[in-house]
């Protein structure tokens, strides 16, 4: 069975503990501490793999964990870093925090690889704790704990155009007639139904990706008939084509069908109705000569709303080329960037919430010293040396009220802020 949704637990590696040992060599009876640092725990990394188009693997493996860092060793030897765990997913996979539903990452567009959970920082060996008054420290720093998170993986079809309509109106036939003889089609099986991606080739490099998205019926936005399983795939599309039966072979009212589907789209996500829409009045080959009451009724109903009507026959391809070129024209007026969801949940910040911290002014040099588990944890899980990491850490300090408290204590531009091994000058934004 194909899966487009899975719930799993991911866990980064624990940092290795610092080591306690002392130099012991011939003729050096009282050597100093030489305990090495623990290795950093492995990261949890998600990466797009274009050869995968399902989430089936996650149905069988519930927990995914990176390797722990090794404990430090004697003779100042560092413990080995834990191996990262790279989790391969299809393009279009959204990673959500399970309890809140907030987006952790959207593996779409240019986002091909992202660290989701950072491994714990390795603890310092006892060599770091030697002082003039304590020359033989018998303790070392433990490694930071691993981070564990339950996430929901959700696969959304990535297509420029979505075909919507009630069953048997000819969506599949239209998709088949608009792709070339050997279309680049990937099947996505959702229980017994098959949303299909097809590449529409208009020649000279022009074209777009179109998806036949079945399963839409009245009540779909309430989850009836697998509605939610299909409606979410339309969120990625830029243009919506309503396919209706203009010949009435199924005894349906095309106008009522379009209104019903738009109601379902709006109920699921009001932004879906902001997308450009086109109506394909299909099966005109089944109309008697000169019979166009349905097409005229559609035009009268929807063209005042800016929705263009195209009478077509997906079987004979009558009117299909004009429809495809019109849709391509709509796409050309739009941003080429794919729809990518912004990150809403930041694991590193989440795991540091609620932890205490202190701010003291050093009597020696006047630096503002910020310490505590909250700060230590964030520094351990954030790469401050990268621009992105430093900006994220600044945002964390602001959101946690640390910058505000520094200002209340009288910090001025150019003053030094010290956080464990990190030192920087403060400048107000």
Cα-based radius of gyration, to the nearest Å: 30 Å
What oligomerization state is this entry in? single chain
% residues in beta strands? 15-25%
Strand order of the largest sheet: 10-11-12-9-13-14-15
The number of strands is 19
Unreliable stretches, pLDDT < 50, 5 or more residues? Answer: 180-192
Largest sheet: 7 strands, mixed
Order of helices and strands: EEHEEEEEEEHEEEHEHEHEHHEEHHHEE
Q: What form results from the Cα inertia axes?
A: elongated
Report on this model:
It contains 10 helices and 19 strands. The strands form 4 sheets. Strands 10-11-12-9-13-14-15 form a 7-stranded mixed β-sheet, with helices on both faces. The chain has a 5-stranded mixed β-sheet with strand order 3-1-8-5-6, with no helix packed on it. It is an alpha/beta fold and 429 residues long. β11 and β12 form a beta hairpin.
Summarize the structure.
The protein has 429 residues and is an alpha/beta fold.
Feature tags:
elongated, 22% helix, 19 strands, five-stranded mixed β-sheet, seven-stranded mixed β-sheet, 429 residues, single chain, alpha/beta, 23% strand
List the helices and strands and how they pair.
Layout: E1 5-11, E2 44-48, H1 57-60, E3 63-65, E4 85-89, E5 93-97, E6 103-107, E7 113-117, E8 148-155, E9 161-164, H2 171-178, E10 186-187, E11 196-203, E12 206-212, H3 227-234, E13 239-245, H4 254-268, E14 277-282, H5 293-302, E15 308-311, H6 320-332, H7 347-352, E16 358-361, E17 368-371, H8 373-381, H9 387-399, H10 402-408, E18 416-419, E19 422-425
Parallel strand pairs: 1-3, 2-4, 9-12, 9-13, 13-14, 14-15, 17-18
Antiparallel strand pairs: 1-8, 2-7, 5-6, 5-8, 10-11, 11-12, 16-17, 18-19
């Amino acid at each position: 069975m194909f899966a487009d949704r899975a719930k799993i637990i991911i866990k980064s590696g624990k940092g290795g503990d610092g080591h306690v040992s002392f130099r012991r060599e011939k003729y050096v009876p009282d050597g100093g501490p030489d305990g090495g640092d623990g290795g950093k725990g492995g990261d949890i990394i998600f990466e797009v793999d274009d050869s995968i188009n399902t989430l089936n693997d996650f149905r069988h493996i519930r927990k995914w964990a990176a390797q722990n860092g090794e404990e430090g060793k004697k003779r100042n030897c560092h413990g080995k870093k834990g191996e990262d765990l790279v989790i391969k997913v299809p393009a279009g996979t959204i990673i959500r925090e399970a309890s809140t539903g907030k987006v952790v990452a959207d593996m779409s567009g240019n986002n091909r690889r992202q660290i989701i959970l950072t491994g714990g920082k390795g603890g310092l060996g006892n060599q770091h704790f030697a002082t003039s008054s304590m020359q033989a420290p018998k303790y070392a720093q433990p490694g930071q704990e691993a981070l564990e998170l339950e996430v929901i993986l959700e696969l959304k079809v990535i297509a420029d155009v979505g075909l919507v309509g009630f069953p048997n109106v000819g969506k599949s036939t239209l998709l088949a007639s608009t792709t070339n003889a050997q279309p680049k089609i990937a099947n996505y099986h959702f229980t017994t139904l098959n949303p299909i991606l097809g590449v529409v080739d208009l020649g000279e490099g022009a074209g777009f990706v179109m998806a036949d998205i079945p399963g839409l019926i009245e009540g779909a936005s309430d989850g009836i008939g697998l509605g939610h399983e299909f409606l979410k795939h339309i969120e990625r599309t830029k243009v919506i084509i309503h396919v209706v039966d203009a010949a009435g072979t199924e005894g349906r009212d095309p106008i009522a069908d379009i209104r019903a589907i738009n109601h379902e789209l709006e109920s699921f996500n009001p932004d879906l109705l902001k997308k450009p829409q086109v109506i394909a009045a299909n099966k005109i080959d089944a109309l008697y000569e000169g019979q166009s009451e349905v097409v005229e009724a559609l035009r009268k109903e929807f063209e005042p709303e800016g929705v263009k009507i195209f009478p077509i026959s997906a079987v004979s391809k009558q009117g299909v080329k004009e429809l495809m070129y019109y849709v391509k024209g709509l796409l050309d007026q739009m941003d080429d960037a794919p729809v990518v969801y912004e990150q809403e949940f930041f694991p590193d910040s989440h795991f540091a919430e609620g932890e205490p911290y202190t701010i003291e002014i050093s009597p020696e040099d006047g630096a503002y010293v910020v310490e505590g588990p909250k700060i230590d944890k964030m520094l351990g899980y954030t790469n401050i040396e990268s621009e992105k990491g430093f900006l994220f850490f600044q945002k964390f300090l602001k959101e946690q009220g640390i910058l505000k408290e520094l200002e209340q204590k009288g910090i001025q531009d150019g003053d030094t802020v010290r956080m464990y091994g990190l030192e920087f000058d403060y400048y107000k934004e």
